[in-house]
Each structure stands twice: as structure tokens, then as C-alpha cells.
From TrEMBL:
Alphabetical list of Gene3D superfamilies matching this protein: Dinitrogenase iron-molybdenum cofactor biosynthesis domain
SUPFAM superfamilies to which the protein is assigned, alphabetical: Nitrogenase accessory factor-like
Region Disordered, residue ranges: 110-129
Protein name per its UniProtKB record: Predicted Fe-Mo cluster-binding protein, NifX family
InterPro entries linked to this entry: DiNase_FeMo-co_biosyn_sf
Bias type Basic and acidic residues, positions: 115-129
Length: 129
């Protein structure tokens, strides 16, 4: 965990709870923290449909790529890879409260998401660190 300012996004379709399908989602709450102590809500992203990463054509800058971490209720492997290639660490979690999730991420206690039954992508189930 780097020291200084961290930008942490939370996928939240209702701006209240952590929701899944971050690749198709267009609403994100962005928090900033200094040295992992003070957490403040920086902004709320309400992206137009074409800016959902699932639809996005890759042109120009995307606001999600400015994040250090993105917390979501769940997402596909492709999304994790795409974000990772831009330097964003994606964490899927069962935690539903955005601020609690951000604090848990910072203290390394973020509970993992329950595995998705309906996810048809093949993965070996191992978490590669």
C-alpha cells in the first residue's frame, strides 16, 4: 500500500451500496485517502452509457483509470485484467457499505466476494498474487 494520496473507487449503481458488474456499471463513488487515515468522498461518477467499460472504445482518458483501487461486488476476469493493465487493482468483495469497504481495503480486511454461480468464464479458482 503506497503512502500518500490513494484514490479508491466503489462501483455503486445506487450511490448507497457496493454493487457488482463493474464493467457494465456506470456509477461509481470515488474516495480519496491520505496515509490510509482520513477518508473523504471525492466525487460521484455517473458515466454515460458509452463510458461503461464494457462499451468503451478505448479512446482518450477514462476516469476509472485514475483510480488506484476499484472495489466492486463482482466482475469478470476480463475486467480485472483490463483495469490491471492500466494500473488499477480491482477487489471484489461481499461488503456492501462503500465506506466500510474502503476502510477494510486499507486495513487489509476486505472480505472477498462470494463466487458467482452464473459466471461462465473459465478460471481455475486460484487467486494469483
Amino acid at each position: 500500500m503506497k503512502v500518500g494520496s490513494l484514490k479508491i473507487g466503489v462501483s455503486s449503481q445506487n450511490f448507497r451500496t457496493v454493487t457488482g458488474h463493474a464493467g457494465k456499471g456506470r456509477r461509481f463513488m470515488v474516495y480519496e485517502t491520505y496515509d490510509g487515515s482520513e477518508i473523504q468522498e471525492l466525487e460521484r461518477l455517473d458515466l454515460p452509457k458509452e463510458m461503461a467499460l464494457h462499451e468503451w472504445n478505448g479512446q482518450g482518458e477514462h476516469p476509472l483509470f485514475e483510480l488506484d483501487y476499484l472495489i466492486t461486488g463482482g466482475c469478470g476476469e476480463g475486467f480485472v485484467r483490463k483495469m490491471g493493465s492500466r494500473g488499477v487493482m480491482v477487489r471484489a468483495t461481499a461488503e456492501t457499505d462503500p465506506v466500510t469497504a474502503v476502510k477494510a481495503l486499507l486495513s487489509n480486511t476486505l472480505p472477498p466476494a462470494a463466487p458467482h454461480e452464473h459466471d461462465h468464464e473459465h478460471h481455475d479458482g486460484h487467486d494469483h498474487h
